[in-house]
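Internal ticket - ligand job 323, zinc ion:
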Amino acid sequence: MNKIRFGVSYFTTRDKRHFALDLTEIKEAGFKYIVHTFSERDLEFYKDSMRELVSMTKDAGLSALADPWGVLRLFGGEEYSKWIYVYPHIRQKKHNGEEGYGACPNNPKTTELLEGWVDAVADIGFDGVFWDEIHLDDLACFCEVCNELFIDEYGGRMDLAPSIILREFGALSKRRLMEHLFSYARRKGLSNTLCVLPNITLEELESYIYLRDLDTFSLDPYPAVLKTNFIKFMEEHVPYLFKKARERGLETELWVQGFSLTEEEVSYIDSFFSLIKNKNIEVNRVAIWSFRATESMSYIRPENPEKVWKKFLSYMRRDGRVD
Ligand SMILES: [Zn+2]
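stdout (C-alpha cells):
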C-alpha cells in the first residue's frame, strides 16, 4: 500500500487561542492537512480570523485547503447562504416551477460571487480549494438563463426534453462552472481538489476526472449516502474511478464519515480500511469529516464521537494498514 497522507476538516472555532490547542492535537496525531470550512459567514465576518487560523496551520507545517461550505447552496455544508436572498434572481428553478435552494450554475452573478470567494481564499493565504460536493436541486436548473442556454445548445425547450437530456445538461452546467473556477483558482496560485458525492451515476462521476486544472479527484463514499451500496461502491467504483484519475495524472482522496454514526456503526471504519487493503485501492489522501468526529455539532455528531475519533487515529498510526 502506498503511503497515505491524512487530513481532517475543521470548523469548531474561529478563536485562535482555542484553535491553537486543537492544532497541536491535529499535528501530534500526524495529520498533514486541514480542510477549513470557509463559508459566506466566514467571508463576511471572520476573514482576518481565518487568516490567523490559516497562518497558524501553515506555520505548524500543515497544508490549508478552503471549503466553500454551503456557499450559494451549490456546495455541501451545514451553513446558510445569504447571497441567494440578497440576489434572489440567481436562484435555481426546479422542473415544477418551484424555486430551488441553491444558485443557478449558469447565472453570471453566481460566477462573479464565486470568483470573489476565490479572491479572498487566495488573499488569506490558503494553499488550495477543496470544492465540496457541487450539486443541483433537480436534474438541471430550469431558470430563464438556463432555458435560453438550453435552446441555443439543444434547439428546443427544456420543458419538452426527456430526463436523459436534462441530466446531461445539468451535469454539463456543473462541469462548466467548475472548470471555470478551477482555472480562476489556478491563476491565483491555488490547487484544486474536487469532491464528488456518489449519489449520481458512475458516468457523471467519471466525467469530472476530465476537467482541466483539476489536481485531486476526491470521493466521499459515506454510508449515510450510499446505505447498503457502500461496499459495492468501494469494491467496484472507487478502484475504477481512481485508476482513471491516476491515468489522468491526478491525486486521489477518500473521506471517512466521522458523523451521524450510531455506536454499532463505528465498525464501518474497519470495513473502510479493510476494503482499501483488500481491493488494493491506491489512494494518496484519506481525510475524516471532521475534527474529533464532529463532536462540536450536535446535529450530526455520532453517538460516541470519542470512539469514532480514536478508531480513525488508530488506523492513522498504522498508515492505514489493517494488519
Ligand atoms: Zn439556471
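Auto-summary: The pocket of zinc ion is lined by residues 92, 104, 106-107, 141, 143, 145-146 (CB under 6 Å). The CA atoms of residues 113 and 240 lie 35 Å apart.
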